[in-house]
Design a protein that fits this description.
Layout (H helix, E strand, L loop, with lengths): L2 H20 L6 H17 L3 H24 L1 H8 L27 E4 L6 E6 L2 E7 L9 E8 L2 E6 L4
Parallel strand pairs: 3-5
Antiparallel strand pairs: 1-2, 1-4, 2-3, 4-5
Length: 162
Amino acid sequence: MSQGIIIMLILTGIALLAIEVFVIPGFGVSGILGMASLVTGIFLVTDSLLEGLIYTAGSLIVLSIIIYLSFRLPRTRRLWKKFSLSTRQTSKEGYVAPKPQYEKYLGQVGISLTQLRPAGTGNFDGVHLDVVTEGGFIGIGTPIKIIGVEGTRIIVRESSDS
């Protein structure tokens, strides 16, 4: 096979992998085609199947060593930090997760303060809670009963109790 086709396969593989890394997130068609193009180019350069396998394995080992060292060396570590999110949401800055302690309201009857279609707000003995229905619509001022609590999700249904 001509050297021009082999060089084009390898360059196309590198370009497709670069597109996969820098443009298209995830592991998709361009990444698979890029790897296939690179491996095909390597196998076409060699004289036998065994030689192609040795070159492919050697390339993967050298690439693994380069990637490992790039994470360890201080100069290249700064490059990898540009790809990662380093901000944190701490409680000192005011980020506090809600504490799911709504089981104590299970079975209570209240009044819907907003239209529940299916989410809205209900009043239970002076406490306003965000609630969701089982899927139906409930109008304003309708008596509602808490029938389930799933973490911070409070499930209600229309109540016949007043």
